[in-house]
Amino acid sequence: MRPQLLRIFSAILFVSCLATTPALAQKTPPQKSSPKHPFGFDDWAALRSAQPVAVAPDGKTVLYEVTFGGQKGTTNTEWRIIDTPGSKSEKLNLPKEFSPRGFTKDGSHLYGTLEQKKKPAQFAITGLKHGNPKAITNIPGGVRDAEISPDGSRFALMADPRTPDPLADVRTVVENDQTSVYVLNADGSGGAWWCGSLKDVAAIAWSPDGQQLAVLSANPKIGFHYVHSTIDVCSANGSRRLAEIHNAVNGIAWANAGKEIVFLSTTTEVLTPDHVWTIPAAGGTPVDRTPTLNGSALALGGDARGKVWTAVAHGVQTEVDSFENNSLATAFRWPDGIVSGTPISPQIAAAPDTLVLSVADPRHTRNLAVVENGSLKKLTSEGDDVPANVALGDVRVVHWTSKAGIHLEGIATFPAGYEAGKKYPFLVLPHGGPEANDVLSLDSFSRMIAGLGYVVLQPEYRGSTGYGSDFLNAIYQHFGDRAYEDVDSATDYAIAQGWADPHKLAIFGWSAGGFMTSWTVTQTNRYRAAIEGAGITDWLSFIPTSDIAQVDYDARWPERDAEPFLKFSAIMYADKVTTPLLILHGAADPRVPTFQGREYFILLAERGKTVKMVTYPGSPHFPLRWEQRRDVFEQIHSWLAKYNP
Fold first, then answer.
1. Crossing angle of helices 512-523/484-496, nearest 10°?
2. pLDDT 10s digits, 349-362
3. Domains of the chain (ranges plus CATH)?
4. DSSP of 527-585, one letter per residue?
């Protein structure tokens, strides 16, 4: 047992003993429990969550990853195994440089990637409980991922075919990354590159007979203005092109006994794969099998038995559907919460049909659940100790109609001890993406801000996933007006409900939510405080400089007409800002380059606006180090306390 569980067990045992001894029970005064405290940063840092990684070939053991924060450094990781009854969990003694991906055919070893000092990661194998990981490959460019074949006889690796730059410590050559397919036997012999012409591989899937791979490729960022994807069938004899798709694709699997290949794609201009498509493995035309889907297909995966699973968002709840006979059917739901990702099962075709999923809800972090008799049974309870000692307010799914007649959904988080009829400080929290969604899980930022006494509302504005393709596509070239109208209507709704004090309003968002914050304060002065994290402020410079293709906002060529890109750029309206604005940004952010925040900050400062900018050294799009994350929250807290008391 973990020490805390052992203490709880000892306390229960002690109380039981007292209950059986009347004399002692009469002399012992009743124990007073410690008062619960509001959810704060230390609670977030202490939360543990679990994610399934693989199931052993015997179907009885699950490998899973536990992550948790701390006071300093990056997120901590533990690798553990648990039996499917959930009676025994054990921490594995694996070095931090090794990331396991799955079990070998005999179930006694794990395979994965091994980081090496000043060298690219390699494919490695280690004993399940004993021994050190041993690198099996020596690929100069390094290995990024691995998949075992359904018969367990081979591994397919996604690896970099290039030789590293010998002067990488003194220069950086700006070029696209490359990923190709390398296949080797289970004993490490016979390694060879397959389909060498494929250098932009994004995902692979073994055919049922283990002789071929379905390969999804996506065009790289540099040198391509428009997004397109390709699907190939790859073997030791070369590749065969099945389709070129002039849009984004995500996930790939074999179905119908190897006769079809399944993937996610879209016809929307915002490029977010949201429907399930198929194409004959022999070649043909891709077909959208879910043209009327009232939701969004978010993830897709196939198992060694040939079953195909899809994670589907319906509003703020996510379920797992099976894909059979070219249609989706609901398979697994989690009450008042979500099932995230697709099921994890044994990767060997002859193994038992064990399915493990990830589940969460607003009071519990992500944990494992196993399928028993068609239903989900929770296997782990990581993180349950934190909410047990914290005063958490209610979380409600709410609905309203905007002034424009748009039916909208959101998640409202209330402070502990909320009193109906009393007006509270209010914060609207638009999500990032923007083609993403808030879901019914334990959202740390909502909980921390509610812990400050706020009502928090997360609006699912147009452009969010979970509401169908039309809703998703509505913000193409209209993020600055349509999505803004929806977010602002959330504040109207909170005021109308009597939750929000109209004189104590605030807004905070990160990434696309950061854009929404930076843009909102140019359009209205209703908010007393605003916090923008890593937000886009200048679309004209952002689209070509982000590390990934961003033409889902607007695919027009900016040099031909800059006006559409400047139209929704906050920098063009800096003189209109009256709301005190806090800008937070990673100093090494490749997604939304740091100059986006700095440019806006300087323009506001030179106009005498109330503005502050804080950057985090070495930080990417969101800080990885927990001492930096603490400062993010402390900056938010102090800004709200000063300007929206």
1. 70
2. 999 999 999 999 99
3. 47-92+335-390 (no CATH), 391-643 (3.40.50.1820)
4. -SEEEEES----HHHHHHHSSS--TTS--S-TTT--HHHHTT-GGGGGGG--S-EEEEE
